[in-house]
From TrEMBL:
<dbReference type="Pfam" id="PF12704">
    <property type="entry name" value="MacB_PCD"/>
</dbReference>
<protein>
    <submittedName>
        <fullName>ABC transporter permease</fullName>
    </submittedName>
</protein>
<dbReference type="GO" id="GO:0022857">
    <property type="term" value="F:transmembrane transporter activity"/>
</dbReference>
<feature type="transmembrane region" description="Helical">
    <location>
        <begin position="336"/>
        <end position="355"/>
    </location>
</feature>
<feature type="domain" description="MacB-like periplasmic core">
    <location>
        <begin position="430"/>
        <end position="630"/>
    </location>
</feature>
<keyword id="KW-0472">Membrane</keyword>
<keyword id="KW-1133">Transmembrane helix</keyword>
<dbReference type="InterPro" id="IPR025857">
    <property type="entry name" value="MacB_PCD"/>
</dbReference>
<feature type="transmembrane region" description="Helical">
    <location>
        <begin position="752"/>
        <end position="772"/>
    </location>
</feature>
<feature type="transmembrane region" description="Helical">
    <location>
        <begin position="419"/>
        <end position="443"/>
    </location>
</feature>
<keyword id="KW-1003">Cell membrane</keyword>
<feature type="domain" description="ABC3 transporter permease C-terminal">
    <location>
        <begin position="668"/>
        <end position="782"/>
    </location>
</feature>
<feature type="transmembrane region" description="Helical">
    <location>
        <begin position="21"/>
        <end position="41"/>
    </location>
</feature>
<feature type="domain" description="ABC3 transporter permease C-terminal">
    <location>
        <begin position="287"/>
        <end position="401"/>
    </location>
</feature>
<dbReference type="InterPro" id="IPR050250">
    <property type="entry name" value="Macrolide_Exporter_MacB"/>
</dbReference>
<feature type="transmembrane region" description="Helical">
    <location>
        <begin position="281"/>
        <end position="303"/>
    </location>
</feature>
<keyword id="KW-0812">Transmembrane</keyword>
């Protein structure tokens, strides 16, 4: 019986090559797209969960409650980790974790610049980092200890086996001893580093982090397996009271735990509440994968139902000779399974071919896990689900046909069947319309971000690190830079000009409410900061060497001026910490953080020399390439032992929105695939409709109907369905895209033309697809179609 069913299925597949090819190709593209998305989703879901101790690992987060709002971040006091181990019995291990830093390592003639972190001694144990040499317990116990990756060890020593116990020169002024070599971190590791340094050394370098009122680094901890996180959270709620002198009734910092397994996916907080993050993209692409499978499955369902006339007599004969409905259902479901199996095999080939490009686009290292039994179970599930989705309705419909009506030749599609088929086409194009609108909105938002006036000119602006000899010789370096052709201005800034996370509430002015604690962003800059950045000064002046007291004075932005409340702020007193000075200038608000957040109050202080900062160089338009060569030569003169590295601020700006850019590109790709798959089905239906109405078309042409009128007749029904889909999809698309845009403080407005454009695209694509078959049918010689009459 099974063999007979298979033979019949294969014969039908071969006899209807066009429709079989449409079904297989449509399902293959839907399955391949879904598999790529599922591999991406699986990788996203595993980030932070791959550690053996993952269920017991937590990040200590802070709710800073001040000025009527709650700001949540991971910036904690540098001494918090050790205190938690002493005071909370449930904490087994705890470690501080600094922001990533780039440093220079040299062994003989081998010089390498890499990124890494300062961490507490428990780090390697907590995260169970695979060690190739050394021991976790002792690797970072002393200030001169250094743990490095296999990659860094190979670069410095030729092979990691030679590294342990050897000395490494650090930034050309310190010597460290390699005490451990760890395996290169996987591509999906949430924290990426090539070296780890001792935590007490970090606190010694940054003594302000030893004060409880200051925050900056992160704190990670591991709880006992039997510990209750809720009880630990209750202890953390008021842990800083009595330790942080800034905490009072009007400014409060509440600590809480975020599981390591959730930190990557749920990184966004809004006014103290978890507000999505990468999980939003995971959910989005789950929906996209479902859309693609549905569209492909609907193609199969529609074409199989439309062609049921061809199978009707077969069903009638089978029923007359004794076949029951169950056996017929199994036969047609088996045919759907065969088509889906062929499509799945083709999909696997496509995925294997496309994975390198997909990895390049998403910056991941995904592979087809063919050795994983769970992957084959997933494929089996997809096979069963897709074949059931695609073949269920045609099987039920065909098996329900009456043998008497079929064999008498009186079979007609019922109104319900026609409504169902049209409904499937409408549903397909509703999904397609949603993807089209999403593509347009994402593209427009990314264009808005890239072209938005940030309050400064990011073009022709180069950033280099003020490391090594540049920090001590900055003034001379600047003077010589300005003598080079193509260099317009030079300055420096303590923080990244695009990401300023420094905040303080220690700002005071005349008339300030003593019970309020207002958060200000702050940074240090050098002379010519506003000229180099091309920031507009609204009132007052920039810092100038002509004013000797400017080291105690301040520049503020518009947001800070509004918050302070001076009617005319220039010349008014302002105190930052213990430094009393005056406001010398008010700057136009410029974006010193991502466009996801609104511009916050900013205070800028002057420090013409400062370690660990960034030097900004403004080049003349069209002369950047020549200027860079001159800058590199001068850099090597001042910093001969450091490799010359630089970045363009506009490139760094675009990197801030890499996730959105990747999502935008993926949306474009999958929207295109969805349209193509939907059009395959429409093409098949149009071909079948033209075939069914072959004689009608011949009669109309004999009676004088024009080609245009026949094309209009055949295309009209399909275009009506597409228009219905546009009407249904538009409000759904508005709601969905509006929700996505809420994640940006600065965003485009949803406009009517976006939905009209998406609708016109859908209509145009559908019209082109249907018209091909319609014109072909209209041009056919009526003699051929009417010959049997």
């Amino acid at each position: 019986m099974l063999r007979n069913h298979f033979k019949i299925a294969w014969r039908n597949f071969i006899q209807n090559k066009t429709f079989s090819a449409i079904n297989v190709l449509g399902l293959a593209l839907g399955l391949a797209s879904s598999l790529l998305i599922l591999l991406w989703i699986q990788d996203e879901l595993t980030i932070g969960t791959q550690y053996p101790n993952a269920p017991y690992l937590y990040r200590v987060m802070e709710h800073e409650i001040a000025d009527g709002r709650i700001v949540t971040d991971e910036d904690t006091p540098g001494v918090l980790a050790e205190e938690l181990k002493k005071q909370i019995p449930e904490v087994v291990y705890a470690a501080g974790f600094s922001s990533p830093e780039q440093h220079l390592f040299s062994v003989g003639n081998n010089v390498v610049k890499q990124t890494g972190n300062y961490v507490g001694a428990d780090w390697l144990t907590m995260y169970d980092t695979p060690l190739l040499a050394g021991t976790r317990a002792t690797a970072l116990r002393s200030p001169n200890n250094l743990a490095i990756s296999r990659r860094l060890a190979d670069a410095l020593f030729g092979t990691y086996q030679k590294a342990v116990g050897k000395s490494v020169r650090f930034d050309n002024y310190l010597d460290f001893q390699v005490t451990a070599v760890f395996e290169n971190l996987p591509a999906n590791a949430p924290d990426k580093y090539e070296f780890l340094l001792n935590w007490p050394l970090y606190l010694e370098r940054e003594p302000w982090l030893q004060q409880w009122e200051n925050g900056g680094p992160g704190t990670r901890l591991q709880l006992r397996p039997d510990a209750d996180p809720a009880k630990v959270n209750a202890k953390l709620l008021t842990f800083l009271k009595g330790r942080n002198k800034d905490i009072d009734a009007h400014f409060n910092i509440q600590l809480f735990l975020q599981p390591e397994t959730e930190a990557y996916l749920y990184s966004n907080f809004s006014n103290g509440h978890r507000d999505g993050g990468r999980i939003d993209y995971v959910r989005l692409f789950v929906v996209v994968a479902a859309f693609l499978l549905l569209i492909a499955g609907i193609n199969f369902m529609n074409l199989a139902t439309a062609r049921s006339f061809r199978r009707a007599r077969e069903v009638g004969v089978r029923k007359v000779v004794g076949a029951n409905r169950a056996s017929l259902i199994w036969q047609f479901m088996g045919e759907a399974l065969l088509v889906t199996l062929l499509a799945l095999c083709l999909a696997l080939v496509l995925v294997n071919m496309l994975l390198p490009s997909f990895n390049l686009l998403t910056e991941k290292q995904l592979i087809l896990p063919l050795n994983n039994p769970l992957f084959w179970m997933l494929l089996l599930g997809l096979l069963v689900l897709t074949s059931a989705l695609a073949g269920s309705y045609p099987a039920l419909f065909l098996s329900s046909l009456s043998p008497i009506r079929v064999l008498k030749g009186t079979l007609r599609f019922s109104a319900g069947t026609q409504v169902f088929r049209r409904g499937l086409v409408v549903f397909q194009f509703v999904l397609t319309m949603l993807l089209l609108v999403g593509t347009i909105v994402v593209y427009r938002q990314l264009q808005y971000i890239q072209n938005k006036n940030l309050g400064y000119d990011r073009e022709n602006l180069i950033k280099i690190s003020g490391e090594g000899g540049l920090a001590q010789n900055y003034r001379t370096f600047k003077q010589e830079l300005l003598q080079l052709p193509g260099i317009q201005n030079v300055t420096h800034i303590q923080t990244n000009p695009l990401e300023n996370g420094n905040t303080t509430d220690g700002v005071h002015w005349v008339g300030k409410d003593p019970t309020s604690a207002i958060q200000f962003n702050n940074t240090w800059v050098g002379y010519d900061f506003t000229k180099t950045m091309k920031i507009k000064i609204l009132r007052g002046r920039d810092f100038s060497p002509s004013f000797g007291m400017d080291s105690a004075n301040y520049l503020i932005n518009e947001a800070a001026a509004k918050r302070i409340g001076y009617k005319d702020p220039v010349g008014q007193p302002l105190t930052f910490g213990r430094t009393a000075g005056k406001i010398v200038g008010v700057l136009e608000d410029y974006h010193f953080n991502s466009l996801h957040v609104a511009v916050r109050p900013l205070i800028i202080r002057l420090a013409e020399t400062w370690n660990y900062d960034n030097i900004l160089i403004r080049t003349a338009p069209g002369q950047t390439k020549q200027a860079l060569a001159s800058v590199e030569a001068l850099y090597r003169k001042f910093n001969p032992k450091y490799p010359f590295t630089y970045s363009f601020v506009d490139t760094d700006f675009q990197a801030l929105y890499k996730s959105e850019s990747i999502v935008g590109t993926l949306t474009n790709v999958f929207a295109g695939l969805a349209i193509f798959i939907a059009c395959l089905g429409l093409f098949g239906l149009a071909a079948f409709t033209a075939e069914q109405r072959n004689k009608e078309i011949g009669i109309r042409k004999v009676l004088g109907a024009s080609v245009g009128s026949i094309v209009t007749l055949l295309s009209g029904d399909f275009l009506k369905l597409v228009l219905v889909a546009i009407v249904i999809a538009s409000p759904i698309a508005w709601y969905a895209t509006r929700g996505w845009l809420q994640g940006f403080a600065y965003k485009i407005e949803l406009e009517w033309w976006m939905f009209v454009l998406a609708g016109l695209l859908a209509v145009g694509i559908a019209l082109v697809t249907v018209s091909f078959q319609s014109i072909k049918a209209a041009l056919m010689n009526p003699v051929k179609s009417l010959r049997s009459e």
